[in-house]
Every structure is written in C-alpha cells, then in structure tokens.
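User: Just a sanity check before I run the rest of the batch. Below are the structure tokens for the first item. I only need the designed sequence back.
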C-alpha cells in the first residue's frame, strides 16, 4: 500500500468512528444539567477604528426538566478603545428551551429567553433589554465529545439593536468535567469562550 493512501484511510477511519461511535462506548445524550464558567475573548470587526480587542469572564448554569431545560448566564467583559478607555459591558441571559427529536446521541434545540445588556464608558452609560430566539443542534458522536451549532436572533428593541449570531461549540469530557471552547460570530464582533463545565446529571 502506498504511503499516500495511508493518511486518507486514517482520516476515513476517524470519520467512521465519530459517526458510528468509539469502540467500547455507548451513545449518550447531551447533558442539560450543569454549571460552567470561563474566559471570554472579544475581537471587533476588522477596520473598526474605535474598538480594540477585549476580554472578560462568564458563569452560567442549566437545569433539565425532562424534554425541557432552563438556563441562566452572566457575562462581564471589557473592550479597549481608541480613546484610551475601556468599554465595560455586562449581560444577563435567562431562558428556557425544548430538546429532542433526533435520537439518542443528538438533539434539536429550540430556546426562547430574555436578555439584558448594560455598558459603561467613562462618563456615559446605558443599556438595553429584549428577547432572543435560539435554534440549533447538539451532538455527541462519541461519549467523551460533544459538538454543537446554533443560530440566535436577538432583538433589543431599537431599529439597529437586532442581529443574528452564529455559534459553534466543542467540548471534551473527562467523566463529570468538560473542557470546552466556542466561537461566536455577530454583526460587528467575533468572540470566543474557553470554559470548564461541571455536569450535575442528565
């Protein structure tokens, strides 16, 4: 067998394992009862002359109620600006959702919730609140690993305060502890999270 075929066969074997399940493991549903927290990184849109990169932290929790779940999240970040000051932003997210339909290792997820966002920049401050609708898929191709993809519509009340966000998640589990990363694309910023998730049940 030529050496050029080995990488291709290895890749196909890996894909087959992800789809069919890792040997010795059973398929499992995503967890919906957990506590998580971690680091936030923020990168404004290229060409933005006012905002620079930012960072922060978040903490959140989710609780499963059969085919439904509730969740609460708090996010706190600070973005450097060209004015030499920091734009501080805090955000509360509260919502509930339904999951199921796709079988044991995957779930279709639909969520609806309330969002409150406040900002503070030197002598000025403000905030908005509104609602969001979230939809996507969570999938555990093998028991120690989960991937997810979501689209979220957010409306904070004003003509320019609505947008659609896209998010990708990946988590590796070590029994009850998960180590995860996510990437989110909004209209004017890219952001990423690095986090720990403590699973508390189903």
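Assistant: Here's the designed sequence for the first item:
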């Amino acid at each position: 067998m030529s050496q050029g075929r080995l990488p291709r066969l290895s890749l196909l074997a890996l894909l087959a394992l992800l789809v069919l399940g890792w040997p010795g493991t059973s398929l499992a549903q995503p967890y919906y009862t957990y506590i998580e927290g971690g680091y936030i990184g923020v990168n404004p849109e290229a060409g933005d002359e006012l905002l620079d990169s930012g960072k922060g932290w978040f903490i959140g929790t989710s609780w499963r109620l059969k085919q439904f779940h509730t969740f609460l999240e708090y996010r706190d970040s600070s973005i450097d600006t060209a004015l030499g000051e920091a734009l501080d932003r805090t955000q509360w997210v509260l919502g509930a959702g339904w999951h199921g339909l796709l079988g044991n290792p995957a779930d279709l997820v639909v969520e609806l919730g309330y969002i409150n966002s406040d900002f503070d920049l030197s002598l000025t401050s403000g905030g908005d609140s509104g609602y969001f609708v979230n939809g996507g898929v969570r999938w555990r191709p093998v028991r120690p690993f989960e991937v997810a993809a979501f689209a979220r519509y957010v409306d904070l009340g004003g003509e320019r305060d609505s947008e659609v966000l896209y998010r990708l998640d990946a988590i590796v589990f070590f029994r009850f502890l998960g180590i995860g990363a996510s990437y989110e694309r909004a209209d004017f910023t890219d952001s990423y999270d690095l986090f720990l998730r403590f699973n508390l049940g189903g």
